[in-house]
From TrEMBL, chain A:
Entry EC no(s): 1.1.99.39
GO-annotated biological processes: malate metabolic process
Native source organism of the sequence: Oreochromis aureus
Molecular function as annotated in GO: (R)-2-hydroxyglutarate dehydrogenase activity; FAD binding; metal ion binding
Cross-referenced PROSITE patterns: FAD_PCMH (PS51387)
PANTHER family recorded: D-2-HYDROXYGLUTARATE DEHYDROGENASE, MITOCHONDRIAL
Family recorded in the similarity comment: Belongs to the FAD-binding oxidoreductase/transferase type 4 family.
Main location: mitochondrion
Gene (name only): D2HGDH
Name of this protein: D-2-hydroxyglutarate dehydrogenase, mitochondrial
Role this protein plays: Catalyzes the oxidation of D-2-hydroxyglutarate (D-2-HG) to alpha-ketoglutarate. Also catalyzes the oxidation of other D-2-hydroxyacids, such as D-malate (D-MAL) and D-lactate (D-LAC). Exhibits high activities towards D-2-HG and D-MAL but a very weak activity towards D-LAC.
Highest taxon listed in the record's lineage: Eukaryota
Alphabetically ordered keywords of this record: FAD, Flavoprotein, Metal-binding, Mitochondrion, Oxidoreductase, Transit peptide, Zinc
TrEMBL record, chain B:
Coarse class of the protein's main subcellular location: mitochondrion
Protein family membership: Belongs to the ETF beta-subunit/FixA family.
Domain of life: Eukaryota
PANTHER family according to UniProt: ELECTRON TRANSFER FLAVOPROTEIN BETA-SUBUNIT (PTHR21294), ELECTRON TRANSFER FLAVOPROTEIN SUBUNIT BETA (PTHR21294:SF8)
Gene this chain is encoded by: ETFB
Protein name: Electron transfer flavoprotein subunit beta
InterPro entries: ETF_a/b_N, ETF_b, ETF_beta_N, Rossmann-like_a/b/a_fold
Compartments where found: Mitochondrion matrix
Domain (Electron transfer flavoprotein alpha/beta-subunit N-terminal): residue spans on this chain: 26-218
UniProtKB keywords: Electron transport, Mitochondrion, Transport
């Protein structure tokens, strides 16, 4: 984990203090404004090396405002939509507050900067907050006490799970108190007849998978971050993943939630019933709310049986049209056992070969498909798969492929899809886009983007959950490049909007994409979202600066 | 000039499952419903044989497996990797449960004579029983030289140069043909069986024979008395001082 050494302020003579204050103001102003250019918007990403956080918090609001004006005036520029807005007038943490937290969370109120730092930076190392307090409750009651107190004291709170999000939603923007669910990792109950698992929000997804596999069940979702992400965060962001094609989204598989609202009230909707039409289904509001409407403290989720027979097929296609036809054929012949249909392009394969030394199991093709089947009878499944593959090959939809039936080979084939993200990080600075489009148009965006960017970009790759109409478009460059970013955005969002697609299929909005919401949602809808937020969190202390756009006045 | 060597590659059909449970009557482990497939070391042996054929150093690769009906799938995989034909030695039921290295090596020896094989390639050991005996026993029964734990194989005229992975390092040996070679992990990386080859493999022949046809007696010389799980791993203990550690060690009778 990257650590950035803080400047430790010692009592200094007045002269030095004056100098330091100016440096502080300058840094603060830069911190608020991020990168900007006169011509266009650039991404609001902090490199951990550029900005050193002073240990003491920023000086007064007035200084902030004046320095912002100063810099804005000097350049006359617009601020990037993904840059953080000004700090809202929340209170700051005092010694009294710390004393309160220490009383209810003895030994679990962290203020040591070295220990808080990892929670201030996101997984991509692209955004950094300046929180000084990390709280680690173990029970719902403790979360309730924390929120009740923070609400009364007007202290902002940033709920944090595994911190694996990709849109800057999981880390503080300023000095919000980090509320970590990591110690809330107990499994509360598992009903082996109904398959309903009830657990605390801080359970790591992979651990839940291991627990269930011993009992002949699996989690209904699976994603690359499984070793670190927590189920509470998954629910708060309505995570999609590799199995959505088969088991559906969390909106369907989550049966109940226990939450703590902004004022500390505990909302117990932790039902384990499959069907319950008694009133408004409140939990749906919180699934995907990204920690802005309430803090999830427990989840009950419906889990499918572990399949007895899993096969993975890796296929190569010459054109995207053939890939889509293969998808149709696949649904027709393997429909009931299909559990994943993913794709990657030849550029992805090149990156896997180059950076991770993973060899191509088949011959070079423009497009690759990963198909997974999960069923209850190996013989039946093998027969279905065999028929499908024969059809696909004889009708020349597929030019090459290979099949895996055992654990080690299955893992090897899956890693070709799951490790693309990792390979990209070795290729340079990555601009990531997670788009939902009508399936026929998915690759068109990649082709158009390549043409549009020409030589500006190092690599432009497309991969993702083609079965769900979800493209992961990534553009790399040797280093952060504002001109490249200006070429990508808003082109990519306008292109998406023109097909009525979603500018964030599964990653959510977080900090980085909050202001792009209007590309995919009507303003009336967004206004209603704002009303709901105001009703549930009048002081706006839950995960501020995220998810909803800035121009939404409460 | 290429030696007319015709290898027989034998494949283990063994279970590859992360979770093994002992049968309630302690006579063995549960194999019903447990996923079976080709032994990884045997896969490496198949790959080596196919490579040799591609280099035109050998004429024909025959894949052999001993076991119930399902072991034919393993042979099919070998055919898809490039073997020319398969022989399935049909052993099922009680006979299969008692099938051990001695029985398999008798079968292989009989087949080798029948097929006039010049080279037998096997995996060094099966990952379900870890016996590491079949290759060696087969060589003994045929009175052939053996090159075990091979990490490099090259044919030189009618001799074979081998590098063996042993505890002390690497051993280079030269053996005559016909010979038995067992494959170790670093011999090669098995290729994926690609679809066109999987389709072609369906047309390749798999002959079925019974051990009796080969004149092999399957009676086992071993009797399994009991199979138990290893003792549960107990949690460790933390102590504060060295003195405490010594006391605890003494208490446990370790010092």
């Amino acid at each position: 984990m990257h650590y950035c050494w803080e400047l430790v302020l010692l009592p200094v003579p007045t002269v030095m203090a004056g100098l330091f204050q100016r440096a502080l103001r300058l840094r603060t102003a830069l911190r608020c404004l991020y990168d900007y250019s006169t011509l266009s918007r650039s991404t609001a990403t902090l490199s951990p090396v550029d900005f050193h956080r002073p240990f003491l918090t920023c000086s007064s609001e007035q200084v902030l405002a004046s320095t912002r004006k100063l810099h804005a005036g000097a350049e006359g520029s617009k601020v990037s939509p993904s840059a953080a807005p000004e700090r809202l007038p929340f209170c700051r943490v005092t010694e009294e507050d710390l004393a309160f937290f220490r009383k209810i969370l003895p030994g679990r109120t962290i203020v040591d900067p070295d220990l808080v730092e990892p929670s201030n930076v996101d997984w991509l190392k692209s955004v950094r907050g300046s929180s000084e307090v990390l709280l680690r409750p173990q029970t719902t009651e403790e979360v309730s006490q924390i929120l009740s107190y923070c609400n009364s004291r007007n202290l902002a709170v940033n709920p944090q799970g595994g911190n694996t999000g990709l849109v800057g939603g999981s880390v503080p923007v300023y000095d919000e108190i980090i509320l970590s669910t990591s110690l809330m990792n107990k499994i509360l109950n598992f009903d082996s007849i109904s398959g309903v698992l009830t657990c605390q929000a801080g359970c790591v997804l992979e651990n839940l998978s291991f627990y269930l596999e011993e009992r002949d069940y699996i989690m209904p979702l699976d994603l690359g971050a499984k070793g670190s992400c927590q189920i509470g965060g998954n629910v708060a962001t309505n995570a999609g993943g590799l199995r959505l094609l088969r088991y559906g989204s969390l909106h369907g598989t989550v049966l109940g939630l226990e939450l703590v609202l902004a004022d500390g009230q505990v909302l117990d909707c932790l039902s384990t019933l499959r069907k319950d039409n008694t009133g408004y289904d409140l939990k749906q509001l919180f699934i995907g709310s990204e920690g802005t409407l309430g803090v999830i403290t427990a989840v009950s989720i419906l889990c499918p049986r572990k399949p007895k027979s899993v096969n993975v097929v890796f296929l190569g296609c010459e054109t995207f049209e053939q890939l889509l036809k293969t998808f149709q054929l696949c649904k027709g012949m393997l429909g009931e056992i299909l559990s994943a249909f993913e794709f990657l392009d030849s550029e992805c394969m090149r990156l896997l070969n180059t950076h991770l030394k993973l060899p191509n199991p088949i011959s070079d093709c423009p497009f690759y498909i990963v198909i997974e089947t999960s069923g209850s009878d190996p013989t039946h499944d093998a027969q279905k798969l065999h028929n499908f593959l024969e059809d696909a090959m004889t009708s020349s939809l597929v030019s090459d492929g290979t099949v895996a039936t055992e654990e080690a080979k299955i893992k090897a084939l899956w890693s070709l899809r799951e490790r693309v993200t990792e390979a990209l990080t070795h290729d340079g600075f990555t601009y990531k886009y997670d788009i939902s489009l009508p399936v026929e148009r998915i690759y068109q965006l990649v082709t158009d983007m390549r043409k549009h960017l020409g030589n500006q970009a190092k690599s432009v790759v497309g991969y993702g959950h083609v079965g769900d109409g979800n493209l992961h478009l990534n553009v790399t460059s040797p280093s952060k490049d504002p001109a490249l970013l200006a070429a990508i955005e808003p082109f990519v969002y306008e292109w998406t909007a023109s097909c009525r697609g979603s500018i964030s299929a599964e990653h959510g909005l977080g900090l980085k994409k909050r202001n792009y919401i209007y590309y995919s949602k009507q303003s009336q809808a967004v206004a209603l979202m704002g009303n709901i937020k105001a009703m549930l969190d009048p002081k706006g202390i839950l995960n501020p600066y995220k998810t909803l756009p800035d121009n939404l006045k409460q | 000039k290429c030696p007319r060597v015709s290898p027989v590659v034998t494949l283990c059909y063994c279970f590859v499952s992360p979770q093994i449970r002992v049968k309630p009557d302690n006579t063995g482990v549960v194999t019903d419903g447990v996923k079976h497939s080709m032994n990884p070391f045997c896969e490496i042996a198949v790959e080596e044989a196919v490579k040799l054929k591609e280099k035109k150093l050998i004429k024909e690769v025959v894949a052999v497996s001993c076991g119930p009906q399902q072991s034919q799938e393993t042979i099919r995989t070998a055919l898809a990797m490039g073997a020319d034909r398969g022989i399935h030695v049909d052993v099922s039921g009680k006979d299969y449960e008692n099938l051990g290295p001695l029985q398999v090596s008798k079968i292989l020896a009989a087949l080798a004579k029948q097929e006039d094989a010049q080279l037998i390639l096997l995996g060094k050991q099966a990952i379900d029983d870890d016996c590491n005996q079949t290759g060696q026993m087969t060589a003994a029964l045929l009175d052939w030289p053996q090159g075990t734990f091979a990490s490099e194989v090259s044919l030189e005229g009618d001799k074979i140069n081998l590098v063996r992975e042993i505890d002390g390092g690497l051993e280079h040996i030269k053996i005559n043909t016909p010979a038995v070679i067992t494959a170790d992990l670093r011999l090669n990386t098995p290729r994926y069986a690609t679809l066109p080859n999987i389709m072609k493999a369906k047309k390749k022949k798999i002959a079925t024979v019974k051990p009796a046809d080969l004149g092999v007696d399957l009676t086992s010389r071993l009797e399994v008395l009991k199979v138990e799980e290893p003792p549960q791993r107990e949690a460790g203990m933390k102590v504060e001082t060295v003195e405490d550690l010594v006391v605890k060690l003494k208490e446990a009778g370790r010092v």
